[in-house]
Write a structure and sequence with these properties.
The protein has 387 residues and is mainly alpha-helical. The protein has three domains: 20-149, Arc Repressor Mutant, subunit A (Orthogonal Bundle), CATH 1.10.10; 164-241; 282-379, no CATH class. It is 56% helix and 6% strand. The protein is built from 17 helices and six strands. The strands form two sheets. Strands 3, 4, 5 and 6 form a four-stranded antiparallel β-sheet that branches. A hairpin with a 5-residue loop joins β5 (127-130) and β6. α2 packs parallel to α7 (151-191), α3 (58-70) packs across α5 (100-112) and α7 runs parallel beside α14 (320-330). It starts with 19 loop residues before the first helix and ends in an 8-residue tail after the last helix.
Length: 387
């Protein structure tokens, strides 16, 4: 008869007290896991992206990596042993000679964050007992089950953070371009003899603000201020920033020859271009992908849709890194649309993660946007099995 490994204690050894936080971590870890198994390195990668949300430093993550390396399987599987009982000496050696006092501090941080649990023996030592068949029946050490229990939450948070980072990157890019316009236009105005000292001061202040690490709300405020500044600069220069649609312009356009040799405006793409990040209409996406409707708690705009697909992506087997790459290369809206398409076609896609990686690669080469797929889904049901 094979004995099943079981936990026999929930309280810490020695002077460490039981706290409300510890009891909550115990409750989460011992509850039914949302998934039966998970790749330990996928969860670790996702946690690395959002370590700050749990108060974990890089060195603390390094200690968690060491603990995971002592777990013999790549997969954390419910019902299987997940207790690491390596000694402090062994952990320090694998952590490149980390002092034991430092190791203890980072282990305590992992426990406080609810990433691991202590299963202390009567004398505080770490060891495992084995049954007649050699299988582990009882182990005392650090339990990795909280990572399994929290894996879905960790990956959802990481996916949402990837979208947030993409938004911030785009905001900083927009602000940099607007700053360039503001500075050069002010310089041009000064060369024309206009007094633009006040406008110049505001542009310099905005540039100084961009040197700091600003959050999304602060960047949005800076972008709004720059938009107002540019409007004032254009007004001082009497520049109409809208397209010129005067009859004279239209006449000139109509009279232009379409001969590519004459006007050199013919363009043939010789190299792959980056993905077009303009998304399809949201109503088209929702209409073409009814299977995602149960996941849409509310749908006011693209932000709600992207957040919903952040939660859905891990359920389909798409890991955090793949989702983050898709958001970065396609844009969050197109990435969310592609996940919705995958959900709608889930019966014909054998490996959703590999499929999304393939489409992301094509998007990076300028060969993919989701709109043709949406149109094809509306016209013809998809059968077969994709990679």
């Amino acid at each position: 008869m094979i004995e099943k490994m079981r936990t026999v204690t929930t309280t810490p050894f020695g002077a460490r007290p039981v706290t409300a936080c510890l009891m909550e971590h115990q409750r989460i870890a011992h509850a039914d896991a949302p998934v039966s198994e998970v790749d330990k390195w996928d969860v670790f990668d996702a946690l690395t992206m959002i370590a700050g949300q749990f108060g974990l430093s890089d060195r603390t993550l390094g200690v968690l990596r060491v603990l995971l390396s002592f777990h013999p399987d790549r997969t954390l599987r419910d019902g299987q042993p997940m207790v690491v009982f390596a000694s402090n000496r062994a952990l320090c050696e694998r952590a490149h000679g980390m002092p034991e006092s430092t190791l203890r501090r980072h282990l305590a941080a992992l426990v406080d964050a609810g990433m691991i649990l202590r299963h202390d023996s009567p004398n505080g030592k770490r060891f495992a007992r084995r049954g007649q068949g050699g299988q582990i029946t009882r182990a005392f050490g650090f339990d990795l089950r909280p990572l399994l229990a929290r894996s879905v939450d960790i990956r959802e948070r990481a996916a949402q953070d990837a979208v947030r980072r993409e938004r911030i990157a785009l905001l900083r890019e927009d602000i940099s371009l607007m700053l360039r316009d503001a500075v050069k236009l002010v310089l041009f105005a000064q060369e024309q003899g206009l007094n633009c000292d006040a406008l110049d001061d505001r542009a310099r202040l905005a540039r100084r603000a961009l040197r700091r690490k600003l959050d999304e709300d602060q960047l949005t405020a800076v972008k709004s201020q720059l938009a107002e500044l540019l409007d004032e600069i254009h007004a001082s220069l009497n520049v109409d920033n809208s397209a010129d649609t005067s009859p004279e312009t239209e006449t000139e356009t109509a009279e232009m020859s379409g001969n590519a040799v004459q006007i050199e405006r013919h363009y043939q793409r010789s190299e792959k271009e980056p993905a077009d990040k303009n998304p399809p209409p949201l109503q088209t996406v929702v209409a073409a992908c009814p299977d995602v409707h149960p996941y849409l708690d509310r749908l006011r705009d693209w932000t709600d849709f992207v957040e919903a697909m952040c939660r859905v992506a891990p359920m389909t087997g798409i890991d955090t890194r793949t989702w983050a790459d898709a958001c970065r290369i396609m844009g969050p809206e197109n990435a969310a649309t592609t996940v919705a398409i995958i959900v709608q076609r889930i019966g014909s896609i054998a490996k959703p993660g590999a499929y999304l990686r393939s489409l992301t690669k094509k998007a990076g080469e300028g060969d993919y946007t989701p709109l043709p797929l949406l149109n094809a889904m509306v016209r013809t049901p998809v059968t077969g099995c994709a990679a």
